[in-house]
Design goal:
Layout (H helix, E strand, L loop, with lengths): L8 H54 L7 E4 L3 E16 L4 E4 L11 E2 L8 E6 L7 E14 H4 L15 E7 L11 E14 L5 E7 L12 E7 L11 E7 L4 E2 L8 E11 L3 E2 L5 E2 L2 E9 L4
């Protein structure tokens, strides 16, 4: 009696068919997972773009006051003098040189800033006389240097203030000599910046930042992208990628030509859009997200 060796052609074909079905099912599952991953990633990116725009802009606006003034108010751009740091005046070292408190982990009057000020920025120095209300005086910064704390800040150095007299402190040189400044006077540093919706060379729309000149008509440097992508600019306020609306203290909406000192709050709308997204059914279309926040200017 002869024993059967191997498989028949029909059995081999059956195995191949079953293997093909299983492989096809696995491939389809992997493709759907890849599409799901891409869809989810694009949705996260659009939400991140919305959050980035609203966080950056609202923080800048809250660091701006009516006394600083907003230099540009348009539907897709805003230009402000925003606070980049603060300090305390220690002593006058020369006609235009002002000693500042050093950075310190304890004590009052420590100097701190988001970015170090330079010749393109302003210093606001608070001055008061007797019991009368004081005011912020604006001076253009010529330069910023360092000096030992015992020289730059002798009136505040020592154990009682938390400053190390042998450490380094700051000396601020102003473009115009100020009147005598009392030790302990608050100092704020301002930078003129413009934030706007703009179209890049890649054809996509971003939130951009420009640093502008401190004095005179607005002249700004090259634009730097901060986040994106956003919908294209449109005069239709329900479709544009980035929208600014301006209001006074009574809630009345201001136009771009209104007196900026009336400005009390700014409403920001951001509408982000993804790159082309492949949906779960295989079709290609963009997804998007949007958000709105209202930021009030600092009241001082």
């Amino acid at each position: 009696m002869n024993s059967r060796i191997g498989a028949s052609l029909i059995e081999i074909l059956a195995v191949l068919a079953i293997t093909g079905i299983v492989a096809t099912a696995i491939a389809q599952t992997l493709i759907r997972q890849q599409r799901l991953y891409r869809v989810t990633s694009e949705q996260i990116d659009t939400r991140r773009s919305v959050r980035d725009a609203l966080d950056v802009l609202s923080q800048e606006i809250r660091n701006t006051s009516a006394s600083d003034t907003v230099r540009l108010m348009s539907d897709s751009a805003v230009e402000v003098f925003s606070t980049i740091g603060s300090s305390v005046a220690c002593t006058t070292l020369g006609a235009s040189d002002l000693g500042l408190a050093p950075p310190a982990t304890s004590g009052i009057g420590a100097t701190s800033w988001i970015t170090e000020p330079d010749s393109g920025d302003f210093a606001l120095i608070y001055r008061s006389a007797g019991g009368s209300p004081g005011n912020w005086e604006r001076y253009r910064i010529k330069s910023l240097g360092t000096r030992v704390t015992s020289t730059a800040c002798p009136s505040m150095s020592g154990p009682s203030s938390g400053f190390n007299s042998s450490s380094s402190s700051y000396v601020l040189t102003l473009a115009t000599p100020p009147p005598a400044i009392r030790a302990g006077s608050p100092v704020r540093f301002l930078r003129r910046s413009r934030y706007s919706l703009y179209r890049s060379s890649d054809g996509k729309w971003y939130l951009g930042y420009r640093r502008c000149n401190a004095l005179g008509p607005s002249v700004c440097g090259s634009i730097q992208p901060l986040s994106g992508y956003y919908r294209a600019y449109s005069s239709d306020t329900t479709k544009t990628g980035l929208l600014f609306r301006y209001f006074d203290a009574a809630g009345a909406q201001l136009s771009s030509g209104s007196d900026p000192t009336r400005l009390a709050r700014i409403q920001i709308t951001a509408r982000a859009v993804s790159a082309v997204t492949v949906t779960l059914d295989g079709s290609a279309r963009s997804s998007g997200d949007s958000g709105v926040v209202t930021a009030a200017l600092r009241n001082d």
